[in-house]
Design a protein that fits this description.
Length: 394
């Protein structure tokens, strides 16, 4: 095969090296600078404007035996994973096309973390961690870390499960408006990348077989790879397991990484709280709910990797004097701990003051008593307060 140079835009060259490397391929063999690489090479999903089309073309994978129009001659980019991603260019006969009315250029790719924003899935080319992600606990964080070690990390979960299956609605462990803060706190663990959430409507995948589900990830969403726990189940009636996931991802040209579950260090407490057959000692959202239900905030903090935060609306709150604030339960935006007195708490007002306080929760409200020289009216008057947050220290 004749190899020639191809001009690569500066924006593409500067995109995340963990997601895209640059090299050349011929059939099933890939080379860089005439030398065979020492590690296995994976061909990532990548979009580039074809010369003779007004659409983006997805090279994933390049078809064997199809002549290539041009191949970049840059060196492979090293990564922290066992695979080396390679950027390949080919003609329109060897790739799948995803059209867009206004296709994004390489400048948009760079600005959008390496993924086209127009006409393509938000997770296109990214690495998705698979799970429910209710509590955003340390096990979920570990999935995000492994995804970030391969490429741009996303958390892919299913929205609307309760409505479709007729389950009673449950109060979330993490308030919807607080999830971004939690994900931002994972940035130092994820190579200075903040994982993004991508909810997939459960109704759109409920009846898919394991193969159909993986095909949806690869062909419709353009996912570059997946990360899942060893106990992950997927497909209709949970018929697929982690081994099936790896096999199917390989068939569809995606990276698949299965990791060990993060185990609960407090096995005695874990067994006491739940006897679920699904729980085998790993950290889980179920464990977090049970720990909140008994008011064991130290244990909750260990499972979450952070203090539990209760977020409340301020509109219906009222004050008794200058140091006691009452917020009715109707203002709670997520799951509180068990009714009782909690002495080690912090009140967070807006993005400003954080004040130590004492919390007393009962069937009607939460009463907050300041343990400081400031008084509530002075603090609240300096902020446009709509939301308050209470951190429960362990």
């Amino acid at each position: 095969m004749m190899i020639c140079s191809s001009r690569i835009s500066q924006q593409v060259r500067e995109c995340n090296p963990r997601q895209f490397g640059i090299g050349c391929c011929s059939g099933s063999s890939c080379f860089s600078g005439g030398r065979a690489p020492q590690r296995q090479i994976r061909r990532y999903a990548f979009w580039f404007r074809c010369r003779n089309t007004a659409c983006f073309t997805r090279f994933n994978p390049l078809t064997k035996g199809v002549p290539y129009a041009a191949v970049a001659s840059y060196s492979l980019v090293a990564s922290n994973s066992d695979e080396i991603p390679v950027l390949c260019f080919g003609n329109s006969d060897g790739c799948r096309k995803y059209s867009s009315e206004t296709p994004a250029g390489p400048d948009v790719l760079a600005e959008n973390g390496g993924c086209p924003a127009s006409g393509l899935s938000p997770v296109a080319g990214g690495i998705v961690a698979l799970g429910k992600f209710d509590a955003l606990h340390i096990g979920h964080r570990e999935l995000a870390i492994h995804a970030a070690n391969i490429g741009i990390p996303f958390l892919l979960s299913f929205a609307g499960i309760a409505q479709v299956l007729g389950w009673a609605p449950r109060v979330p462990i993490v308030a919807e408006c607080d999830r971004q803060r939690v994900l931002s706190s994972w940035t130092p663990f994820c190579g200075n990348m903040t994982p993004k959430e991508f909810p997939l409507e459960f109704s759109s995948v409920r009846y898919l077989t394991p193969q159909q589900f993986v095909a949806k990830l690869a062909e419709e969403l353009g996912v570059g790879g997946v990360v899942a726990g060893e106990n992950y189940r997927f497909g209709y009636k949970a018929s697929g397991n982690a081994s099936d996931l790896v096999r199917l991802c390989n068939e569809y040209g995606m990276i698949a990484r299965v990791i060990d579950c993060v185990m609960d260090k407090n096995q005695d407490r874990s067994r006491t709280l739940t006897s679920s057959s699904k729980e085998q000692g790993q950290v889980s959202s179920t464990q977090v709910r049970h720990a909140l239900a008994i008011g064991d905030m130290k244990y909750v903090s260990e499972l979450l990797g952070r203090p539990h935060r209760l977020v409340v609306r301020y509109e219906d709150a009222f004050m008794d004097g200058k140091r006691r604030l009452f917020v009715p339960r109707s203002c709670f935006l997520n799951l509180p701990p068990k009714d009782g007195v909690y002495k080690q708490c912090s009140l967070i007002i807006g993005d400003g003051d954080t004040l130590p306080c004492r919390a007393d929760i009962d069937a009607k409200c939460i009463a907050l008593e300041l343990d400081a020289n400031k008084v509530y009216p002075d603090i609240i008057s300096t902020h446009s307060v709509h939301i308050l947050a209470i951190d429960f220290e362990g």
